[in-house]
Amino acid sequence: MFFYLLLALLTVVASYLGLTSSTKRTKEVSLLVAWIAFLLIVGLRYHHGDYGTYEMGYKYDQDVGGDFGYFALQKIFHRMGAPFWFFAFLITLLSVYCFKKIFSISPWPAFGLTMILGKIFTLYAMSGIRQYLAMAICWWALYQLLVKKRDWVFWCSVFLAYTMHASALIFIPVYFFRNMSFSWLRLFFLLVLSVVVSYSFKTIYGVAANMSDLVDTRFSTYVTDNDQEFGGMNVLNYFENTLFLILAIVVRRRAMRKVPFYDMFLYMFVVYFGMLIVGNEIGIIKRLRDYYAIAYAILCPSFIFLFRDIRLKKATYYLLVCYFVFLFFRSLAVYDAPFPPNTEGRMVPYHSIFSYSDILF
Q1: DSSP 254-267
Q2: What is the per-residue pLDDT across 220-249, written as a single tens digit (0 to 9) for each?
Q3: Residues in contact with 93: Cβ distance below 8 Å, sequence separation at least 6, in sequence order
Q4: Are residues 80 and 53 in the same domain?
Q5: Contact between residue 69 and residue 133 where contact means Cβ atoms under 8 Å apart
Q6: What's the angle, vertex CA 53, arms to CA 52 and CA 56, rounded to 5?
Q7: Same domain, yes or no, for 276 and 343?
Q8: How far apart are CA 15 and CA 28, in angstroms?
Q9: How far apart, in whole angstroms, are the C-alpha atoms of residue 304 and residue 40?
Q10: Assuming Cys at both sites, which of 7, 39, 71, 249 could form a disulfide with 63, CB separation 3.0 to 4.6 Å?
Q11: Do residue 140 and residue 212 come from a single domain?
């Protein structure tokens, strides 16, 4: 638990200095320290979530998941003689680079790390490898698309992410609403579409599966067998996202002056909200919607524009940081709950490769 507390503390400090420090150097150093802590804790994790499954596939040169890009990458490092912990560390290092790039778009880049802790830490950063890497590449691709205006890099990167985990295809719609201005009509249409898809998903999936072997082979198990396992969405998600969507729309005109690409991220958040609606009926959507979770990192800090008083702005920002840190520890507890007390794979306490000296060499 000490490592989780340390990471949360460093993240809070980086977020605080990112808002209050008058020197750019202080902001950059504090955020860098927080990212290094994240890299070490995630990159050197051991037996968290699916780690053992990936490690076994690496050791015996087996394809875990059927994604040819990840399998090719795994084979390269395995045949070089690199230990699995080093392979996992490099993947985490790449993800940190990708996250730093996309969060640099925001006036509050440190909040991006806070969002990762609260929203995708346990399911992806600590548990997964393939989808976690695919998400990071997709977010870097978005940076290339928005900031560098490199459409071809976006498409190539999303394809690369797809080879790591086929779910990356869900990120493609971002390309088509990147230049759209927000409108109530589009908002209404997307939410109604979410309700329609939610109650007709099995029919839509059946047609798509008949037309595409990819859909049939990669998603059939999730759709047909695992709905009970995933279950519906937590009520907290609906309360949180309804409130956040309302706030994001209320502050939109003020925030657009300070936050680049605000409308695009607002649409990403609407899509995320729509996936919550669909996900209440179809469990697989839980595994897809977090590609759009980056909208939290860009939009939520802009809620400070609800107020003109600087003290109220700071209080709002700190409240949001505390909320995501709360979600971080809540997620750890929930993720840990199914495991018996003495299970090695428990998320709490933290397991590192340094706890197992024979793994290092």
Answers
A1: HHTTTSTTHHHHHH
A2: 555 555 444 445 556 777 888 899 999 999
A3: 39, 43
A4: yes
A5: no
A6: 85
A7: no
A8: 11
A9: 32
A10: 71
A11: no
Same-domain pairing of 225 and 279: yes
Identify whether the C-beta of residue 101 lies closer than 8 Å to the C-beta of residue 94.
no
Residue 134 tokens, joined: 């695919």
User: Is there a single domain that holds both residue 267 and residue 161?
Assistant: no
Same domain, 91 and 68: yes
**pTM, two decimal places:** 0.88
Which pLDDT does position 253 carry in this prediction? Answer: 92
Are 197 and 211 in the same domain?
yes
Per the structure, the complete domain to which residue 194 belongs is given by 179-306
Please identify which residue in the block is written with the tokens 């709002």.
Answer: 316
Which residue, chain included where needed, has tokens 């590609």?
291
Spatial CB neighbours of 148, under 8 Å, sequence gap ≥ 6: none
* Residue where the block lists tokens 């609606």: 277
CA distance 21 to 27: 7
Rounded-to-5 percentages of helix, strand, coil across the chain: 75, 0, 25
Q: Is-contact 296 119, C-beta < 8 A?
A: yes
Counting the structural domains of the chain, the total is: 2
45 strand-pairing partners? 352
